[in-house]
Amino acid sequence: MNPLLVAQLRRHWTLVTACVVFVAFLIIHLLAFQPALGRYRAAVKRAADMGLTLDAGDAPRMMPARVFALLSDNSLPAEAAEQQGGSGELGSTTLEMITRLASQNGMSVIGAEPGVTSRLPRAVQIRAHVRVSCTYNQFLAFLDDLSRSGRLVSVDRFSMTSMNPGRETLDLWLTRYVLKQTGTKP
């Protein structure tokens, strides 16, 4: 062997050792870990074909049970929602629900009138205007009961004016949403 080459190898023994270790790790990787990676990828593919997933990001999003119950309680078949929205049945049941909640909270209903019923592609919106006489605490209790009613109702706006000491006149505009069941996923 060439004495100059041997002298250079002795002088750079750390570099030679690093290269030998690298080649050893490369061989071990190719012989041991590459086949294991192939088996892992095949197992993940088989699991995905069966509908299972190991990645949390790929998992199908599940709707919480309470949200599913709320949505199903506030939905009708599309034909029934259209028919009931057009006939005024949804408007009358909405007004009945609002006046019942108002009277349960000690509010005196002065007037209740249905508003415009909008038929949207995926829902029916029923608007209503209610005028009641109440105290502020009764109004808060009414809103609390309305939020716990299990119906999709929004308070669009309201105004309170003093009628006499301790009682207010409340003008309340509400919208109820009834979803249409279409049978297809959004």
Radius of gyration: 35 Å
CATH homolog superfamily of the largest domain: Ribosomal protein S6/Translation elongation factor EF1B
Helix content: 40-55%
Tally of structural domains: 2
The name of the CATH topology of the largest domain is: Alpha-Beta Plaits
Q: On the 0-100 scale, what is the average pLDDT?
A: 87
Biggest sheet: strands, sense, closure? 5 strands, mixed
Top CATH class of the largest domain: Alpha Beta
Query: What structural class do helix, strand and pairing data support?
Result: alpha+beta
Secondary-structure element sequence? HHHEHHEEHEE
Q: Report, as a whole number of angstroms, the end-to-end distance.
A: 76 Å
Number of alpha- plus pi-helical segments: 6
Give the CATH architecture of the largest domain: 2-Layer Sandwich
Shape: elongated
How many β-strand stretches? 5
Q: Low-confidence parts lasting 5 or more residues at pLDDT below 50?
A: none
**What is the percentage of strand-forming residues?**
25-35%
What does this structure look like?
The chain has 186 residues and is α+β, with helices and mostly antiparallel strands. The chain folds into two domains: 3-49; 75-181, 2-Layer Sandwich (Alpha-Beta Plaits), CATH 3.30.70.60. The chain contains six helices and five strands; from the N terminus they run αααβααββαββ. The chain has helices spanning 3-11, 13-49, 65-73, 78-87, 89-104, 136-147; strands at residues 75-77, 108-119, 123-134, 153-164, 167-181. Strands 1, 2, 3, 4 and 5 form a five-stranded mixed β-sheet that branches. Helix 5 crosses helix 6. 13% of the residues are buried. The model has no long low-confidence stretch (mean pLDDT 87).
